[in-house]
Design brief:
Length: about 500
């Protein structure tokens, strides 16, 4: 249909245009995409067998939807992606405040205009990108904001009595007629405001200052809520919850590969960073493992959740830490080092809610410990498990490395501002590391081997085979008793 040629109601009728409700649009277009095996929710990872099938069932059932989940679980993203299931353009009566369908007008303005002009009624076309409205529920939201109120200025300008419904100023919901309307953090909405949504969801009635208007609004409602809010800040009142067709539980990624895909997709890195900074795969795995450790940590409030945004901002900080180091040292290109992970601590501390014990420990120390825990958790996936070797009493593949540090009384220092050449030379000096990698990670590339070597040193510290001391300019590694002997 060439919408450019259709500018009046008569032309729309001649084109045999058929009106559909928004829920029918979503349903019909979803069916078509499923039959054509087209990806409906592009860019959403980890929900293929859980959330997305439930969402598709809700759309097929023509339900209003509530996404229930912790922060950073793509609830709003899913709602916005539903725009792709709408028709590209729909006709609207020109000048209508509430996007009246020319074939099924509901406002007084549209009905009277069509009655006056008939087939010559002018129409405009509304793109799907304009059919999305979003409101964050906050305690200061009023009925006037979302539904409407009497406008005294309009009454004065039009010289109308307050008894005339033309003095009504419509709120966000009526103005989002024929659109997807999202209310984020629904439990934060005051109970009296939630009550005002009852008739809209069930009957299509809106009530404004004594006016009872029969406006059968055509809308797809989507709500989001955090389980924590049910006890901390409010709740969804039962009658409203009863009128929401499907409640869908969201979740965090369950494996590192999915989490990596999300981070790499969402992280905003400068093009120059991509060209000049190499990020080893192990570094990407470690970054995601830190987030997994945070979600299991006794110091972090699990009810609050650990958002996927933590790994995204942490990755951006990691690149910037490596970039800053290379700018100061003069290296044109560099590879991320494990010591660069200390630069992600500000991204962690700002995104986790600590329990009392965590507050006592300190946010920065909790974040620092998470890096060590992540190293310890990933280590057995690449090298023999140290705890198992200890139980069996066998000589381990790490004895030569520990002996090297016993024989290096002055310690082994990795300064933060080392140039790449000096950094590599220092790690190459620990010759037992080459033997370990040659035996257990023979396929590792030369470029990534240095990160793995530093990873081994950090892991041996976590298993108490070496000691590590952080000082102003860098990190010092010693034998496990070094810190006692030197008095550090």
């Amino acid at each position: 249909m060439k919408i450019e040629a259709i500018k009046t109601l008569g032309e729309l009728k001649n084109a045999e245009y058929k009106s559909r409700s928004i829920k029918d649009e979503l349903r019909d277009n979803l069916i078509e995409k499923i039959k054509n095996k087209t990806t409906v929710f592009e860019g959403v990872h980890g929900y293929e067998n859980t959330v997305i099938p439930e969402l598709e069932r809700a759309i097929l059932s023509k339900h209003n939807i509530n996404f229930l989940g912790l922060r950073g679980q793509a609830k709003t993203r899913l709602a916005r992606l539903m725009l792709n299931l709408l028709d590209e353009y729909i006709p609207v009566v020109e000048g209508s405040e509430i996007n009246d369908d020319p074939l099924q007008p509901i406002s007084r303005y549209a009905i009277e205009l069509i009655k006056e002009k008939g087939d010559n009624t002018p129409i405009t076309w509304m793109h799907r990108s304009e059919r999305f409205a979003e409101k964050l529920a906050t305690p200061d939201v009023t009925v006037a904001d979302i539904i409407g109120d009497v406008d005294p200025i309009k009454a004065a300008n039009l010289k109308l009595s307050y008894a005339d419904d033309r003095v009504i100023h419509y709120g966000m919901i009526p103005r989002a007629n024929r659109c997807i309307f999202v209310i984020n953090e629904l439990p934060d909405l005051q109970a009296r405001i939630q009550v005002a949504l009852f008739n809209i969801l069930q009957e299509g009635d809106i009530q404004i200052r004594g006016f009872k208007l029969r406006l059968p609004l055509d809308m797809q409602f989507i709500f989001t809520a955090n389980p924590e809010d049910y006890t901390n800040r409010g709740s969804i009142v039962t009658p409203l919850k009863d009128r929401i067709g499907s409640q869908i539980l969201t979740h965090y990624p369950t494996d590192i590969e999915t989490a990596k895909a999300i981070t790499q997709q969402e992280a905003k890195s400068d093009a120059r960073q991509k060209e000049s900074i190499h990020v080893p795969e192990l570094a990407k795995d470690l970054l995601e493992q830190i987030v997994f450790e945070a979600r299991e940590s006794d110091f972090i409030d699990e009810k609050s959740g650990v958002s996927a945004r933590l790994s995204i901002t942490a990755f951006e900080n990691l690149l910037s830490t490596a970039e800053l180091r290379s700018l100061k040292s003069g290296d044109e290109k560099t590879t991320v080092r494990l010591s660069d992970f200390l630069g992600i601590i500000p991204a962690i501390t700002g995104k986790v809610e600590l329990v009392y014990e965590g507050e006592q420990e300190g946010a920065a120390q909790v974040a620092y410990n998470l890096i060590g825990e992540a190293v310890k958790s990933l280590f057995p996936e690449f090298f023999p498990e140290i705890e198992k070797l200890r139980k069996e009493g066998d000589e381990g593949p790490y004895d030569a490395i520990v002996s090297w540090f016993f024989n290096t009384s002055e310690g082994f220092e990795l300064l933060d501002d080392l140039r790449d050449k000096e950094y590599k030379a220092l790690l190459n000096a620990v010759s037992p590391l080459d033997d370990l990698l040659g035996e257990h990670q023979p396929k590792i590339s030369k470029e990534e081997s240095y990160f793995v070597k530093e990873f081994v040193l950090w892991a041996l510290v976590e298993y108490k085979l070496l000691s590590k001391h952080r000082f102003t300019e860098g990190i010092q590694f010693k034998d496990p008793y070094g810190s006692f002997i030197s008095g550090i």
